[in-house]
Amino acid sequence: MVIGGGWVLPTIYALGSLWVFVQADAHWRAARLTAVFALIATVGMALSIMVWAQFGEITPDPLGLMCAVLVSTLGWVIVQYSGRYLEGEPGQVGFVRAMLFTLFAVGVLVVSDHLFVIALAWTGTSLGLHHLLTFYRHRQAAQVVAHKKFLVSRLAELCLVVALALIYHATGTLSLTGLNAYLADVQVLPVSVHIAAVFFVLAAILKTAQLPLHGWLIQVMEAPTPVSALLHAGVVNIGGFVLIRLGELISLAPVAQAVLVVVGSLTAVFAGLVMLTRISIKVRLAWSTCAQMGFMMMEIGLGLYALALLHLIAHSAYKAYSFLSAGETVNAAREKAMMQTPAAERSLVRYLAAPFASALLVAASLAAWQSFLPAMQVPFVALFILALGLASLAWSEQELTMAQLIRSVLSAGVLIQLYLIWHLLFDGTVAAAGDPGILLSAWVVILFLAFYLCQIWLRLYPAGRFARSVYPWAYAGFYLDETFTRLTFRVWPVRFSPVQSQTLVNRFSAPQGKLP
pTM score, two decimals? Predict the structure, then answer.
């Protein structure tokens, strides 16, 4: 099996890092050339592998190929942006070294077939990112939040060590190929392997900022914008990638699936509510990432690995664009305000009809596809998520004209076809969709229907009793991060002067968005 784009991607980033260490005065030239060569070589290698595969010479790994191309593309964009963004800043050489090292570690992770190497590269990614997050070392808030992330990451890596030890003890191998061969011969997981799956899940939950250990992701806004883009578009998604890689294991571990679905769905709902209260574009994007990571964890727990992969790639591209274009938000808001038309009266019937209309569109599209491809099957939960997600396209602050209605229907129809095409083309690149069972499926359906109704009620009655009751809690992040923050300072405090330490404790123990 050929994993990813071979070792071309991490090798080029390793050579680029070495170039910067040897010739520090050429740091940006080295970074730009490294990013360009990495992109060209990775895309070329991916195309070559797919061509060779047609002749039966090799067995490609589409998941690794797609993620290697994604990493090289994000690396190229972020490096090009960083050179302009940091112009005139001190410490640029250290920034470039840490950026290239982090991209090297991510490259190793996506192309490796060995769980120990994946865990080691994941740790390296965290350490490189820690240096980038503390680029402005004089900013005490940056130091504190990076310290919180450092502790969460080390706890996640402890979970990985336990999981690897259990896997090796039970199977005698840490290779993904060997593990999948072992899983193909078992109907029920041994207890030790089941526990290992749970520890892999806990590591991913910690690394993807799931509630209530999410505070570091929300508060880490003191870093340069390209670092935020790298974190939210690439590094935080690694947990989803690793679990998709381990899809065969997760599908046989009901406890691990249940943990992913419950934690992920609750994170998606609560973070989604908090996001509605934020006005800072970067903080709003951070809460959006938290919600999206919860949604991805839930999809993996439901066995929707193809949907989770689509989510991972789309989220990476969207968040890279959102953070790197955050500076244009004010101009975009002004242009939108100048072109604003009178607001339409919000209708409960319209909001309630939207999910039924989108569900009919999804069902009709699937029936049309199945008339040509009778063997095509899409899990019910995936169709439910798709229909409910598309319902918001019918939400509009303006009077809905016939042209706008047609445009909304066409947009929803195109998105449905794109998803079904993705499902058809890439369903075989990941583990087969698992059966989450009635209880987990019902939990997701009920929870997200309640979330949809809650959003409707808040839009219809923004000054009502329910909104006034929910808003203070949502604005404070439901006070979920405070306990962990206090525990962090108590167990392993940041080494500042007594006055500074107390000031920072007061600041980060206050509800998010408020200062004492």
Answer: 0.88
